[in-house]
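Q: Given only this backbone (329 positions), what sequence would you predict?
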């Protein structure tokens, strides 16, 4: 095994006590030097979204048909979705807590997007901000443009911000995120308190591509009886998370398809799980989940039949027969 270079050594020191040197080097080795491959030899999966020829063909086809400009306008029609999340056994002091959930920001994809996101977030009332990965668009090159854009957005956010990394995010982005006030959860948990009642927020590393997630380690140290909520980039851990005792699961990654058929039927979801877990609210066992369609765009800065969103989750205790519903402003 080669000795770590200067940049790797700095990252190992920064994450000391959170990740071991071996874990850091494993994550970095999976990042590679060229971003995500078209074909992943580890999982034996084909990733057409990483194929530059496909991106060119899609862009060309949309321009020829006159749909490209319409798609870019759709991608900037960012809405706020209010979602009433009813959780069994939720302690009374936590009823009414509001969680702002953002995902798949891809902040360097379109120059107008960071300002639009800031405008949508600024008037909202919430207690905690959750970001479930994919801060940048590219899987290679500098992440600093995304950091600068996020810093601009967070100027109007005055609550704690917790996040996990996505499949577009290198491990090296963690120090930069934490310098601007984003606490990144790397298979770890934090306790947040409201009116004397603690709530545990746990987060895992991206399970879709990097595979360095650890659900059990993420809940280490969480006291018995404290409600445990999970942040994950993708919904692919739904079964394991429910079995591990998580009460709720927040994620994104799928973009809801981004380019969908009429009726919101996604062409692709890019997730190794049933489609019923790839968009909106869902449940598995005793765990409630929500997969946001995301705020930003990837591959192309277009959307069809899939409006981008940020989600305001409003917590309440579940009663018999309750169903989680979404209310559109």
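A: Predicted residues:
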């Amino acid at each position: 095994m080669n000795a770590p270079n200067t940049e790797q050594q700095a990252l190992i020191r920064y994450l000391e006590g959170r990740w071991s040197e071996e874990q850091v080097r494993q994550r970095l080795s999976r990042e590679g030097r060229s971003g995500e491959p078209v074909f992943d030899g580890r999982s034996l999966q084909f990733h057409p979204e990483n194929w530059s020829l496909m991106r060119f063909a899609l862009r060309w086809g949309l321009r020829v048909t006159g749909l490209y400009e319409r798609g870019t306008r759709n991608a900037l029609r960012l809405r706020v979705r209010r979602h009433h999340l009813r959780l069994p056994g939720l302690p009374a002091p936590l009823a009414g807590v509001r969680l702002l959930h953002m995902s798949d920001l891809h902040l360097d994809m379109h120059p107008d997007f960071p300002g639009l996101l800031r405008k949508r977030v600024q008037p909202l009332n919430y207690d905690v901000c959750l970001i479930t990965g994919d801060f940048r668009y590219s899987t290679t090159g500098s992440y600093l443009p995304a950091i600068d854009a996020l810093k601009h957005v967070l100027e109007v956010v005055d609550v704690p911000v917790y996040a996990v990394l996505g499949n577009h995010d290198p491990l090296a982005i963690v120090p930069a995120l934490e310098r601007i006030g984003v606490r990144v959860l790397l298979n770890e948990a934090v306790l947040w308190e409201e009116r004397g009642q603690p709530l545990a927020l746990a987060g895992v590393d991206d399970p879709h591509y990097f595979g360095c997630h650890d659900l059990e380690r993420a809940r280490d140290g969480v006291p018995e009886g404290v409600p445990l909520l999970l942040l994950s980039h993708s919904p692919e851990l739904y079964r394991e998370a429910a079995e591990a005792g998580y009460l709720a699961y927040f994620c994104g990654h799928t973009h809801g398809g981004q380019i969908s058929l009429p009726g919101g039927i996604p062409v692709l979801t890019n997730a190794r799980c049933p489609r019923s877990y790839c968009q909106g609210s869902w449940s598995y066992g005793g765990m409630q989940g929500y997969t946001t369609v995301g705020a930003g765009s990837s591959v192309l800065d277009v959307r069809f039949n899939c409006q981008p969103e940020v989600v305001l989750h409003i917590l309440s205790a579940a009663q018999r027969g309750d169903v989680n519903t979404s209310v559109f402003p």
